[in-house]
Amino acid sequence: xxxxxxxxxxxxxxxxxxxxxxxGKYIVEYTSDPxxxxxxSEYGFIAGYCTTEYLLMDGIRTGLExxxxxxxxxxxxxxxxDLYYKLEDWASIKGCKYIILGRPVKDSIKVGTQYLKKLD
Length: 120
What we know:
By secondary structure, the chain is α+β, with helices and mostly antiparallel strands. The chain has one domain: Aminopeptidase (3-Layer(aba) Sandwich), CATH 3.40.630. It is 32% helix and 35% strand. A 6-stranded mixed β-sheet has the order 1-2-3-4-6-5. The N and C termini lie far apart (36 Å).
């Protein structure tokens, strides 16, 4: 799937801006905030992305997975794990003690509908 088609699917899935111009503005605005980050995984095209940010929970800096998308043609090929490791590294560099995810990963615990993982 090419970027345009993936962005259309991502917009529908995540409710993001509808036009390419609005999408571009969203990315620039989102990534200009130092507490937020957007990662991509590329295989000749953008095969997946995730957005993340950190916040304070009870005074503890915690990373938060905001949105996640992997192109259907690249699922079950390590793209999601590639994005996850980028997210975890970024959260550690930003001083986060935990990350909150929408899906389970090794050593995470379920809290409500989310998963919490303690970072080293």
